[in-house]
Amino acid sequence: MKIFVCGFGTVGQGFAEVLHDRGAMLRDMFEEEAAIVGAMDSRSYAYDPSGLDPMALVSRKKESGKVGGSGYSDSAEVLSSCDYDVLVEVSPTDVKTGGVGLKNIRCALGYGKDVITVNKGPLALRYRELVDLADEKGCIMRFEGSVGGAMPIINLCTEDLVGERITSIRGIFNGTCNYILSKMDKGQPFDQALKEAQQLGYAETDPTNDIEGYDSACKVAILANAVFGRDVTFNDVKITGITSITDEAVAMASSRNMVIRLIGEVTDTKLEVGPRLIPKGHPLSISGTLNTAQILTDLAGPVTVSGRGAGRTETASAILSDLMAIMDKRCRSRWAGSSSTIPR
Ligand code: HSE
């Protein structure tokens, strides 16, 4: 399995480290090597069809700020001239246009390559187009880490809960806002809490995307499309951020045994992100940078998950699970018709 990583920033490097760590396990499970053959950042790329050393890529990036020795002017040109099976697209997200991530995903799918992405912009703006392109080309596009980071949600709903009628998903999908609101619960001012969230590496490059609710709205749109089969974009979400929440409002909520949390909500008809009053002790009243989601289903009842919504290794863990699903499928088709059993 030849992997090309586009966007060799924090998450890309985390993925390289995780792949290095789990390489032997993948080989044992799927009788196939998972090798990074290409890696690209905003200025450079490295490519070797026989495989690159993931840890050497991480070191080079750390030392020189560049992942490779070759420059480029058009990422799509590089992607179309390299041989790989799966694109891991983890470029910085652009929620206005889809940015370079959208271009890279379109390019890879167009050439019949499978895609794993955690890039929210392309999925929140062009979901249907990308899914249709993947179908047309007979390839797989998976994006577990795009919502909730390490918290299982997309594949949980579409695979594990596949037989359920899911009536709603409500959740906390932005760690930065949750960190700020839970610090405000303790009397800390908004600006100071935001600064801390930025220092922790949770906030987006432009934190407006977090505090105005745009990041949560992208995730709500992705869930609506992937889980509810809707055809919506980020622009269809009714969004209210947390910038107008005052210390007084937080104190007033607390006096009623409530907290204020930024909640994203998706149903067949609803698509909203906004601050909501949540009773203390309720699963959606969590503090800190965690994400959480309550999935209401008809047979299983409410299913609640929580986990780390961002982070180098945490997000890479979601990419690993998508990679393993793709490797599993390839392994099964290799073994189809064979009299031997799959090596597990
Ligand atoms: N800025 C996001 C957050 C990162 O704070 O949750 C994960 O999408």
Description:
The protein contains twelve helices and 13 strands. The protein is of the alpha/beta class. It folds into two domains: 2-150 and 312-335, NAD(P)-binding Rossmann-like Domain (Rossmann fold); 154-308, Dihydrodipicolinate Reductase, domain 2 (2-Layer Sandwich), CATH 3.30.360.10. It has a seven-stranded mixed β-sheet with strand order 4-3-2-1-5-6-7, with helices on both faces. Strands 9-11-10-8-12-13 form a six-stranded mixed β-sheet. A hairpin with a 4-residue loop joins strand 12 and strand 13. It is globular and about 65 Å long. The structure holds L-homoserine. L-homoserine is lined by residues 149, 174-176, 202-204, 210, 215, 309-310. L-homoserine (HSE) is lined by residues 149, 174-176, 202-204, 210, 215, 309-310.
Topology, please?
Layout: E1 2-6, H1 10-30, E2 35-40, E3 44-47, H2 54-64, E4 70-71, H3 75-81, E5 86-89, H4 99-110, E6 114-117, H5 120-137, E7 141-142, H6 154-160, E8 166-172, H7 175-185, H8 190-199, H9 208-211, H10 214-228, E9 238-239, H11 247-255, E10 258-266, E11 271-279, E12 290-297, E13 302-308, H12 312-335
Parallel strand pairs: 1-2, 1-5, 5-6, 6-7, 9-11
Antiparallel strand pairs: 2-3, 3-4, 8-10, 8-12, 10-11, 12-13
Helix pairs in contact: 1-2, 1-12, 3-4, 4-5, 5-10, 7-8
The chain binds L-homoserine (HSE).
The site of L-homoserine has 11 residues, from helix 7.
